[in-house]
Amino acid sequence: MIKVGLSSWKEHAKTVGGDTLGRYSSHFPIVESESSFYAVQPTRNYQKWVDETPPDFGFVIKAYQGMTGHLRGNNPFENATAMFDAFLASIVPLLQAGKLKMVLFQYPPWFDCTRQNVDALRYTKEKMGDLPVALEFRHQSWFVAGMRERTLQFMEREGWIHSICDEPQAGVGSVPTVLHPTHPDLTLVRMHGRNVSGWTSQGRERDEWREVRYLYRYNGEELAEWKENLRALEKSTQEVCVIFNNNSGRDAGPNGKELMRLLGIEYRGEAPGQLHLFD
């Protein structure tokens, strides 16, 4: 099974017919939320999202930045245990509703392949218990010759879902597309675009980096190539979740719709308020 979604429901209002999660969920069956990356969200936020989406809708939730080494400045939590406990408590509504696809641990470009960082991954996996967790690297050292197979074997052994990336090949701070599922149930594919010059640029202002990095629209040939990639991945994993993150120019929505068309996927979700009419 292949499911396609976007990395935000708010940034694509013009392409999916509304800026609310309920409207979004009538077009795509999954979404990635990164608000949890910037702060551990109140439980009420997740409950609201549960209530606004159809029963079979799924969320990819980004891990809090303090859990992946992105945090700069003071950590608002007393220690790592308190931080993980707060995050796990916050997502309970998604778990109870069966709407948590996975928690995505996307590590920074400076998180390279070292013994210390391997130990950090083991610590994180232990803290997350049996929850579905996806792992995405941003440092090339994990997939260089001589390390690629060892990295994939480690992920399989430890139970990590592979977050496969389509992104610019722009040096050590980017990773190649490695079409290898590491979990029998789930595989994540994140489409970051192929804007090579924008990948390493921080923009004119610090807060403009995202607008530069993810400004890219996949063409028909590139999407057709991914259609074949996804069909191949399906043979080794039960479900493939594809997230378009090329959202700077509102390209993610149209690209997601076009990929669904190429794959022959028809999806029309209904908001929970409409479902009771047919009970």
From TrEMBL:
Organism the protein comes from: Tumebacillus lipolyticus
Alphabetical list of PANTHER family matching this protein: UNCHARACTERIZED PROTEIN YECE (PTHR30348), UPF0759 PROTEIN YUNF (PTHR30348:SF13)
Domain of life: Bacteria
Name the record gives this protein: DUF72 domain-containing protein
Coiled-coil regions listed: none
Pfam families: DUF72
